[in-house]
Amino acid sequence: MITAIVFVQCDVDQIPSVAESIVEIPEVSEVYSVTGGVDLIAMIRVRAHDELAEVITGRLAKIPGIVHTETHIAFRAYSRHDLESAFSLGLE
After folding, report:
1. Residues 23, 25, 31, CA angle at the centre, nearest 5°?
2. Whole-structure pTM over 0.85, yes or no?
């Protein structure tokens, strides 16, 4: 599984509608409204790199209200949940 983190800048008054449109894309697992230099962060998960172009440039970037996107590809995932399950002895 390939994970892409997409930073999205939007027209300010369109942030909610852009977020709702992005989350309707099946490969998008989450969309966060955030503070800072970007308005939204979208988490995209696909099986192959070829799919990223279709999802990001073919669908996401064409949503009305999006001004700019910046995509980051994850190499490795670190998660407290993954570490806890890896070291769990099954005791609760």
Report:
1. 25
2. no
